[in-house]
Design a protein that fits this description.
The structure is a homodimer of 485-residue chains. Chain A has 18 helices and 14 strands. With 485 residues, chain A is an alpha/beta fold.
Chain lengths: 485, 485
């Protein structure tokens, strides 16, 4: 290890000497296809000849990147909170914006967004989150159970880290994760050396959770790990599914019967498109069926109608935790000091939008409804277009911001992919990108039943661009089928 | 594990079933004393009778909380970036602010701070960071080695996670950390199950690093862990020391001879107070003595003259990493998507302040110099006051924002503390808090040579309050000595 003759050509960090969990980790949403898309943008900018003149990035749930307009009230509050003196003197700034920043800043150290907050976040914002949940679900929420996070991703990592007991019992801690899944979950499992218990969502049944399948996955895992939690993403990423009340109740009973913590990723709770679909929180249904389990619910300012990904604001609510365990969680978050105050303020605006009678109310309602109506239109167009393609079948985009259609890939294309050492769905998406500039993520990045192929597309490109994309995708798909038939 | 008879009274998460690394972890900066201080503030607010009428929070490096005024240019840029249309039309907003937000936003997805950036941060900001380093050190910096982080804390955690190879080799990965240290390092070691190799700073020599002591610590650790890195905090937290060029060169040679990665926490690089002291980056000295090692340098928007803790902006530069290891690091950061854009923009303002001739230049210079001069005055006052107290000896506060004086605690007080199950320095700080409202952190939270006692105080309360605090501390200290003599 150490020797006086060692010199600077002897690196400390080599692939065999670093964290192998990270070496093995995969994260497809920012994998080789999106990376290639960024290169193509650069190449186009430098005048390269391509069969397309624009790259369409439908690979990531990034609303603003795809042209969504920020919500005025949110931006006014955030902008003003950074320069309150000028803002408060500005006659054009609505009074409810001024009142909001006064209220929030009075709860900050030195009345500044430049001060650290408590590790769990600014108290008044945590209180507002709890009020929002109470109103949404009609059951009590304790603000001391709210932790403001740097987006939902941080919440997931905090929680996975907390439940990972491998260092004590030398057995991998298992977490049940849906397949297909948002790859944050598998990436976090990899990083922390935890065991991913994959359960397949039921594609034939609009991606619902099938309890027999949950039981199969859990039973099979028991020789390999100590199962401790189940992750449910509702509305679904990448599936676009919205769970029914009955399905949620089944899952809760399953968790109770199998002694599992429920981690409910509910970041798309504002994004409901399908007629008749409705968002039910796990908290609400738990209350309704009178079962009391440990529950974590994750929320974010990055999705919904606000789409403020770059601000990194989110919250998690923990329910029914043992007090000493909760104390450990609070100690855990203290070492990262706090999440970004501007992200915290954004969450405040989300959970406490302007109310009827307040000066910002009408504009806020209009902006919110416009965004949501437009997304709804694109969700419907996506479902329609995808199902019109031969060899493609998509469940309705009932919620969230994605479709995850199943595609039949001709044998010749599968063989061609294998020759190149590529997965067939990767091959399809790579061809699509190189020929049309459309960037999607191959289904293999999210997981799928072996032998089936999918891709994930967002519904986020703005309407005109989105129609263009759907047309291009259609043409490509038909050409691809023809080429490899 | 699972049974149909289990019910909701059977918690999944109990102290013996969660991550024991977190159970064991300590984080003193937000430990019981600061927690008690917050309670006292509340009690005072509710009219409780106390021997003081204000709580003085000198426990945390939170400039804005302690009344420091934000820098206008930074706040103008950030505020405007959230509402660019209005800002660009505002005749009162300086042109260089407008140019800056146009430049930065043009590098953001959808020209919005609401879009995700690349995982490593907005490209133009990374380029600006590299330019800043080049100018500071007079040696090249590659923008592709810059990662924008959510404060320096995130950088530390990312790097510790990367080098932690225990899952492969079943031996704890060791990191050399100074004692006294900023507890983020020990907390991160605990959380990740890494081995903390404590090396004592040389209090008799203005907290310099003594190479023989480094060697002792390293040699003793080798039977227990695989040493892989050395952390150096310069300027020092909690010591307030500034390392000499010669000392830095010695440390670099030590790291080379012992095959260690250097993690240089250089977040206080703008905070130099002592006549003759100067900040030298490890990068610069490495270049000067012509040694090429793997190096990580951490920087933050939270300290310096800006003190923007709540925005969570920071960067790390990695030097001389193997390309495949660097690729793993970049994959690692991709799963957390990106750091907060507002924090990234803050870093841009720090590394690229207004230049001579630009409209914001003069005000910016004035504000910066005012803050730094005021801090310098408080640094000097701190050194003077502390050394005037019997039984207290403090090295000069040469840099950073802290003093870490050694205090003689009378035997009777030590015995009294032991009776209460408290460490003597904790006992001292607790008494101080309850009697005067001054909140400091006991030395045991940072580590100290056994049998010696210290506390850490920040120099951040504004001048008038600071003088008041020094007076109160003086009185308390004399009374304490009298009481336990």
């Amino acid at each position: 290890m150490s020797s006086l003759t060692m010199n600077s050509n002897n690196p400390v960090l080599t692939m065999d000497k670093i964290n192998n969990n990270l070496v093995k980790m995969e994260y497809a949403v920012r994998g080789p296809i999106p990376t290639r898309a960024v290169e193509l943008i650069e190449e186009l900018k430098n005048g390269a000849e391509k069969p397309f003149d624009e790259v369409i990035r439908a690979n990531i749930g990034d609303c603003h990147m795809m042209g969504e307009t920020p919500i005025t009230f949110i931006r006014q509050v955030l902008s003003a909170s950074l320069f309150p003196k000028t803002a408060l003197a500005d006659p054009k700034l609505p009074n409810d914006v001024k009142e909001r920043i006064q209220l929030l800043l009075s709860s900050c150290g030195g009345q500044s967004v430049g001060a650290y907050s408590d590790s769990a976040g600014v108290e008044i914002i945590r209180r507002h989150v709890a009020e929002y949940i109470e109103q949404r679900d009609g059951c009590p929420s304790d603000w001391r159970n709210i932790i403001l996070t740097s987006g939902a991703s941080e919440g997931v990592k905090l929680m996975f880290t907390l439940i990972n007991s491998a260092s004590t019992d030398n057995i991998q801690t298992g977490v049940m994760v849906p397949i297909p899944q948002y790859p944050l979950y598998s990436a976090t499992c990899s990083e922390l050396g935890m065991y991913l218990i994959s359960y397949y969502l039921d594609e034939e049944n609009e991606w619902a959770l099938d309890i027999a399948e949950l039981q199969r996955a859990l039973d099979e895992s028991k020789s390999k790990c100590k199962p401790k939690a189940i992750v449910v993403i509702n509305p679904g990423n990448p599936t676009g599914a919205v769970l029914t009340k009955e399905n949620i109740a089944q899952i809760i009973r399953f968790a109770r019967d199998n002694n599992l913590l429920i981690i409910a990723d509910e970041v798309y709770q504002h994004n409901i498109w399908k007629e008749g679909a409705q968002f039910y929180s796990f908290k609400k249904i738990m209350k309704e069926i009178d079962i009391r389990l440990e529950l974590v619910s994750l929320m974010s300012a990055s999705k919904g109608y606000m789409g403020e990904c770059g601000l990194r604001g989110g919250y998690m609510e923990i329910d029914n935790f043992e007090p000493d365990v909760k104390a450990v969680l609070f100690k855990q978050i203290s070492a990262r000091l706090c999440s970004a105050l501007i992200g915290q303020f954004a969450i405040d605006c989300v959970v406490r939008p302007p109310q009827q009678g307040e000066p910002s109310y009408e504009l806020h309602q209009k902006e919110k409804e416009t965004v949501l109506a437009s997304l709804k239109g694109r969700a419907e167009l996506t479902t329609r277009t995808l199902n019109s393609l031969p060899g493609v079948r998509s469940n309705p985009v009932a919620g969230a911001m994605y479709a995850f259609p199943r595609i039949q890939i001709p044998n010749k294309a599968v063989e061609e992919a294998e020759k190149l050492g590529q997965k067939p769905d990767f091959f399809y998406c790579k061809q699509l990108l190189e020929e049309t500039g459309i960037c999607l993520v191959p289904g293999s990045g999210f997981g799928q039943i072996p032998g089936t192929y999918h891709f994930r597309t967002t519904i986020l490109p703005q309407p005109e661009l989105f129609s263009r994309m759907m047309n291009k995708l259609q043409k490509f798909h038909l050409k691809f089928l023809e080429q490899y038939k």
